[in-house]
Amino acid sequence: MDEVLDREIVDAVRRFVERDVIPNASALEHRDEYPHAMVATMRELGLFGATIPADFGGLGLSFLTYARVMEELSRGWMSLAGVINSHLIMAYVIANHGTDAQKKYFLPAMARGEKRGGLALTEPHAGSDVQSIRTTAVRRGDDYILSGSKMFITNARHGTMLAVAAKTNPHADPAYAGISMFAVEKSDRGPTVSRNLDKLGYKGIDTCEVLFEDVAVPAANLIGGAEGAGFKQVMSALEVGRINVAARAVGVGQAAFETAIRYSQQRTAFGKPICQHQAVQLLLADMATRVEAARLLVANAARKKDASERCDVEAGMAKLFASEACAKISLDAMRVLGGYGFMADFPVERFYRDAPLMMIGEGTNEIQALVIARGLLARYPI
Q: Using an 8 Å Cβ cutoff, are 355 and 249 in contact?
């Protein structure tokens, strides 16, 4: 896509956020209510096809533009970016690793938002350690029988299908060589979405436990058509997810900064607006600097992904820095607002509750640091 069209899409999302999201997000979030109307508008804007290639009906956005869109959505309400992220991780896996038949069947419907996907990777005992998953897939005739459980699954209830990681060879050595990915469409035969999980933040979006109790999945839905490729497939897709999470952190950080700097010019203390007090100015300068630094790291990772280069280090750096910056910025915004920052009438307390998700989601920041270090050691051999 050309730069003009990319800019028009970002501008359209910004108008949507200003018109529909910011005025309504807090009420929906406090009720933990799924934003059906907002999701419908995102579908109309084509965001469910944001990074799906135009050949399959998607917008074919660059990852740089996609990151800007996610930042804008998160500036309004971070949960909305989660609806898109899990869906497009699944789409990425299919687009880059699926068979031709899988691409033709799934991607056009996903681009239209008719099929809405999620990623079923995490399990109750296996989070960042993906190799330790226990869900199995056993070939039986023309089907695979999936058995196991998944935890913290976004889009599980309101989506229509999941990209599921399962072990087709539980005895493989190394363990990751036994993992395969399946495109599982929900039906009355399963899987079972057992319960919505009650969370500190990231509310309004369905995050669920999902049970696979001998669920039959057509062998044709084995992504790529070959067993044992699932680990590499999902790891490449998680680079996209980490760019998304980092962009979310930039958006929430930007929103917290904007709330703080506006309030600081309206609130007076000791005879003048608090923005004229040096202590507040130091907070504002630090907040703005961290947001801008995070934004540049996200852009750097997105550009490498656009160039089809490996970007696990850059995506890890962006996710690590941006999420930690977001947590500090949201807390500093609360300091600027004082008691009002602690009140549910102001959005800062929501930013503060949402920020930890970015430090945990798509691999904890401790895992990001290890990924970064190992990547750097590989780049600087002696």
A: yes
